[in-house]
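[Automated response] Your request has been received and processed.

Submitted sequence:
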Amino acid sequence: THDCALINLGSGAFVLAAQASGDDVPALLRSLSVSDARGAEWLLEGTVNGAGSALQWLAEQEGIDDLATRLPDWLEQVTEPPLFMNTVGGLGSPWWRQPGPPVFRPQDTCQSSAERAVAVVESIVFLLQYNLDCMSRHTAIGRLRVSGGLSRLDGLSQKLANLSKLPVERCEDTEASARGVAWLAAGRPADWLAPKDLPRFTPRPDRPLQNRYQHFVDLLQQYSAEFDDN
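Generated structure:
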């Protein structure tokens, strides 16, 4: 449905949301989704450059060979991670900048690999949320559907639900993109089978996460501005 934003989490991440009109939205990408006799439909798109690639960067920096297997437990255990200025691959929407190198805040050599890993995951969630905040000024978003390799992390999906205050569904269909093309080719039939019984993450109150998000946005704005001035 039109109130569902789609999020794909791979080496990078992107968010797609239906737009009521084709009006330009500053700092976000816009594309024509469908155009036929019934009219045109538009999509807003936000991008996060550092998703899986940011975790790969961390694994190399910290020398973690089994990050994928450790992350689920770490996401359960770490409750007060630092903040990660996720500039891996540059900042995508809505910044579109190439600021300084990725850094942790505070810069503390005593931070554990677990704390830093959770900080990287939260930075991905925070960048997605900032794009959702931008989109929600132009279109109504009532729920989220995530797909891609990183979506298998329950902790990430739950944090996204808590921060966005929206239910998150996880699409485990690896052929989701191909099915979408087939649906368009079939003429967008209304009775097309939708995925059922998707794993669902219900928002929970999480004030510390909300506070970290606000602090993250403030710090990232400052950090990127430092390099604009240089």
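Summary generated for your ticket: Strands lie at 4-9, 13-19, 29-36, 39-48, 83-85, 103-105, 143-147, 168-170, 200-201. Residues 113-136 form the longest helix (24 residues).
If you did not submit this request, please reply to this message.
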